Structure formats: structure tokens, C-alpha cells
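INFO  loader      accepted 1 record
INFO  loader      residues=828
INFO  predictor   begin
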Amino acid sequence: MKRFLYSPGGKAALLVLQQVLVGVMVLSVCFGTLMLMKGGDSLFAGQGKYEQSAQFDDAFMSGVYDTIWLTDYKYNFETDGVYNPKKIVDIEDYALNGRITGEVTRSIGYYLEDLVNWGRQGKENESYSVKEVATDDWAGDSGVTASVTADDSSVSVQAGQEYYRFDESYAPVGDVSLEEYLEQHPDVNPSKMYGYLSNAIDNAYNGVEQYKWNLAKYQEDKSNFRYAIVNRSTGKAYSNLDGIQSAADAEEAIKSIRGLGAYIYLDSASLNFEKSPKSSIDSFNKAINQAVNGWSYMDSKVTMENIYRNLNQLSALAGGDYTIAAGIDTTYPIHDGFYDAKIEYEQTRPWFQALMYGGLISLFLYIVVLVALTVVSGRRTDDEEIHLSSVDNIPTEFVLACIAALGILVVFSAVMVLNTLYSVKSLVIISAIVVSILADLLLMAGYLCLVRKIKGGIFWKKSILGWFFGTLYGGAKGIRSNVKVLVSFLSFLLIDFLLALFMIQARSRLTLLLFGLLALGFNAFVGALLLREEGQRSEIMEGIQKIRDGDLEYKLKTESLKDDNLKIAQAVNNIGEGLQNAVADSMKNERLKTDLITNVSHDIKTPLTSIINYVDLLKREHIQDEKISGYIRILDEKSQRLKQLTEDLVEASKVSSGNITLNFEHLNFVELINQTTAEFTEKFEAKDLELIENVPNAAAVVRADGRRLYRVLDNLFNNVAKYALPHTRVYVDLAEEDGYIRFSIKNISEHPLNIRADELTERFIRGDVSRSTEGSGLGLSIAKNLTELQNGHFEIYLDGDLFRVTISFVKTEESHEEQRQEAKHEEE
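INFO  predictor   done
INFO  writer      dumping C-alpha cells
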């Protein structure tokens, strides 16, 4: 698992999984928000009953709000329980007290239907027709403003100022017009009267429209909502239940309402308040406030005194002795808005909870994946080092700024999505998912960049602040060690400043010209010095590059150099001499080692040959003693192994030093492989190794030394015979790829390969760490060096206990002459 997570594929899989989780979370948030808009916080409730939800409470209180308004409308617009369009409206009493008594008690009255028609006409035409009248010098009250719209412009009518009046479409009761009434009553303020009329028109029209709407909405046969409001002071009752006109009629209705599954009951005399299901009275107080005072007024204290104070302002409840009962039949026999809301709630809540849990699980898994990406960031499968990319060289502050900007953009986008979610659902959700995934990918790129910076120890080094403070520190160190440069630079600035100052202060053109020429000459002199310095530095750099390229005898010419450049050039020359001496010593030591190995091997070979010969003579004596025969057999094995080791050592020394002669010719690689496999058949059978060959029949020609190439194959096959796990398969493959002939042999090692692949080709290194098997540890080293001497490529690959060697040579075509001679040789 660790290797997979460290691999590019594993990291990509984690990123893909992370983006899937982001999509699930965004989907959960969007749909969950939509459901919360409909169901409210009640979707979180444990019991899940609609009647105990905040959504139900809001709908219930909305019904209370509507019926309180409806009760007041009934008081104003009905006579004996029936809508009365001929009911007289005293416009001053209606404007000041919100009350229609059916009589003219203060000033002037209009029929209700005339005001409604007048308001509908104005609504339809979107303006009132007006005309200008003369200014009168009233000294009455000011401050009452009647806003009237005429020809798309708003005007105000105030006392003591020029004002406008309506063209009267309808006459007041008992008068020809309001104008005539004002002429007959000069003490009445016209501004106020026109304001009262304007308010009466608007309130009558809007009130009657709302009255009719709520009356139809809450009819007994069309709604599960029931209400009964009784004013004991007047003996009147208001209800949507049939047959209730008086307080006596309402007693049974109130009792039945209090038996419903959800109800409120309020008695002003006993201060008794009941609410079922039980919940805070906040929502009820809110409904009362909105019904009485409108949306702009809210009591800060939720008390019964506040509730009664607000209710007492209603015309229908005048006198303060009343009972209010409202409820919902929670069996929902009628399919109305309450029934539809219950069905929607019961269908929505399980999906909301599933989305909520899915979002939380996705968030948890996202955090797990984020931790995993943090751990594997910068890691690879082949080592434990931290690997940085070119992106990690971006300044740290820029990465942090990008992450912060993306975070702000994500928050801003989330707010926009939530604001537009309810209106354009599918398009907004799809856009939110796509944008969230792209934003997360960019955020993860920045975050993982910071993680690699921290792991690699370059978080501060690759920052702008780090560069700035590092420059300051380096400059401070340079000041201490390069006082001469600092003094020179400050002197240059001072002289230039003084020359510029003299030029500014010059009072004549001649003086200005003189100091200008001095400044030009001084700067030209400094420029020439800098060019000379740069030319000398270029010569030094050219010499360093030649020495780097291997010309250790190159010497820089120091005659024309001065100061620091002279010291640097002398140091470079000394480095060249030192490198030359080091190379000479290294070559001398290598020759000495080679000579030592060769001489010692020859010195060992002479007595070793005698030992082998005498052991051979002893073997021919047919000794019957088994114990002595065993000794002779051991002597024979060890002497032969020592002989092989000596030969390998000499050959390894020659190969590594290049002290061998190669005879290049065109060889058929297929024939060499077949010959080698035939020779190792017995050794493979002894360890029960099954050889699987994938070698073509066609010739695969390479240019190499036949004897040396055979030694390479012999070493590789011999390595397999020694170290392969018994009872396993050995695979031999030969193929042509991209103009190369590639040979590979692979097997399963008998011993654990707790070693790097490149170490196996070093001298005396063996895969058998205990060194309990045959072998000198030189076979693979010799095979690699011989392959590379013949312009081939040698590669070892390890994967657990899998061992594979691949050697490759450039494919070569035989010439016609060689093909002809080869055919002739085959015929002979």
C-alpha cells in the first residue's frame, strides 16, 4: 500500500477521490440548504413529527396572523356577518384609528365600495389625476403630508403651502364633493383632509382585497385551520365555522378547537394562554405584532402583557374582554396548504438526514485523504528522500497569497450560490460543483507546494522575506571581507555627487561645461576600469572551464592581471596542478594495484597448479578409505574454486583497467544464447530450474568480441545457477527494440536481496550476504565491464526477490562479403 500511495498513480487516485468527496459535500450542502429553506431547523429534530417542527409552527402562526387581520377586516367591512359595500367610511376616523363604524363621526364619509373602486382605478391607471388650486393662508396644523402621484411625479400637500387636490371621481355621502365640504368648513385643514382621503382609498382597496383572499382561503370546507374570536364586550364572534355569529354560539366551537391536535387559546379576562404542541410564545407574539403593528415593529420583551397590549389595539377586540382560539385539524381531512406542507416535510426529512450524514462522512474522508496527501507529498517509491518540483521554487509569499485569494473567492462564491440557489437550482448546483472542484484542485496545488517546501526545508529559503534577509546578511558578511570594494563604491558615489552639486551651483556656462567634462571623464575612467576587470574575469572563467573539461595542463597568463584577479588566477593554476598530480597519482595507484593483483595471481597460480596436479594423482590411486577420499574430494573442490577465483581476479583487473584486446566481429546473438543454454542444462536440472526461452529463430547480429560476449553470458547463467531459488523458472528473452538487440535473463533469488542494484556490480559483492555459496563476487562486475567495453549497455533490476539483468547492443547488418564467406564456410 505504501509503495502504491508513493507512486504517481497512487497520488492521482487520492486527488481524484478527494474531488469526488468535494462534489458530494457541495451536493449535500446545496440540497440541504434548499431543504432548510423549506423545512427550517426542524429537519434536525429527533422525533421527526411535522406538528413538532418549526416549519409547522411558522405555518400555524401565519394562519393566526391571517385570521387576526381577517377579524379586523370583518369588523370594518361587514354588517351582521355579511360584506357591506355601502358601509359608510369616515375617512378621518379610518385614518387615525383604523376603524369603520358605518357612521360619520368626525368629518366626512364615503361609501366603502366607492373608495375600493377609486383605489382600483388608481392602481390600474398607476396615477391619480390632479389639478392645481390657489394657495390659502391657513394657520392650521402642519406636518400632515398627502403624497399624490400625477404624471409620474410625486408631490406633497402641506398646510400653509400651495397644494394639489384630486379630481374627485366619487362624491362623499351627503355632499357634492370634498371641495364643497372644505368651502363650507374653512376651519378644516385641506392638506389633512386630502391626506385622510388618500389613506382611506389605499387602505380600503388593499384591505378589501386581502379580506376576500383570506375569507376564501380559510373557509371551513377548504382549510384545516379553525378559528373563533369572541369579543365579550360587544357580544360579537368571528369564525370560519358555520353558524357562529355571537359569543353564545362560539362556546362549543372554542371547545372543539381546543380539542384539535394543534391549537392556541387566549382569554384576556383570566390571562390564560395555552399552546399545543408546546413551544415558545415567541412565534405567537411575532404573529400578533405583525398583525397589529406591521413588519416594522417588534417588541423586544416577549410577555403576555405585550401580547394583550397589542391585541387591544384591534377594532374588533375593543373593550379588552375577549377570547381567541385557533387550531389545525392534524388529521388533515382537507387537502390544503397545511396538508401539502406535511407531505413535503415527511418526504424531505429522510433525504435531508441522508444528505447531512453523507456530507459529514465525506468531510471526514476528505480530511483523511488530505492527511494522506500531506504524508505522501514529495515522496517516491524508490527512496525515502524528499523530491521537489520546479513549482516549489515559486516564492512562498506568492503561494500563500494565491491560497488566501482562492479562499476569499470560494467564500464569496458560496454566498452567491446560497443567495441564488432557490431560484435557479440545477444550473447553480452544477456550477457550484464544477467551481468547487477546480478551486479545490488549485488550493491543493498550493497547499502541497507548501508541504513540500516545509519537508524540503526551503519554506523560508524560497520566500521573498528569506531572500531579503539573506541578502542583507550576505551583504553584511561582504562588508567585513571586502572593505576595499565598499570604500571604492562610496568614493565613486561621493565624487559623482560633488560633481553634480558643482554643476547645479555653476553660475556660468563655462563652469558648467568644465564640471560636466570632469564628470564625463571620471565616469568614463571608472567604466574603463570596470571593463578591464570584467575582461580579466572572463579570462579566468575561460581557464576554469578548460580545466573542468579535462585540460589539466592549461595555465592562465598572469602578467596582465592585478590585485584580486591575480590571486584568483594563481589559485586556479595551483588547482590545475593539484588536479594533474592527483590524476597522475590515481593512475599510478591503479597500475600498482593491477600489477600487484597480476603478480600475486601468477605467484599463486604456480603452487596452485602443483596442488591440483597432486590432488589429481591422489584421485587416481583408488584409495579405499572413505575418510581419506573425502579429504581428497574437499581438496579438489577448494583448489578448483581457488583456481577460478585467481583467474577471475586477473581478468577483472584487466577488464577494469582496459588492459585487454578486443576482436570485434559480426556475431549472431541467437547462436551464442543457444550454445550457452545447452551448456548449463545440467546445472539447471540439478537445482530443478525450468528454463523458459523466448528467443527468435532469425539471426540477431551485433558487433562484439565473440569470446568476451560468451564470457558475459557464461557469467550471467552461472550467477543464476548459483543463486536462483530451486524449483522455480528462469526466463531468457531476446528482442529487437528501437534498433537495439536486448537480451534479458531473470530469476527468483534464493536469498533476500537486501541491497541496491548498483552494488551488485561492484567487486566482491554477492547477493548471498552469508557467503555460504560458491562464487567470488566478481562475475557480475566482469560481465558489466566487458559489456561496456564492447559498447553495450548493462542494467540490473531488483523488485523484491526478482532479479533481472538486461544487456543491449546496437543491431548491426552483416556485409555481403561476410554473408558470402559465412555461406561458403557452412557448405564446407
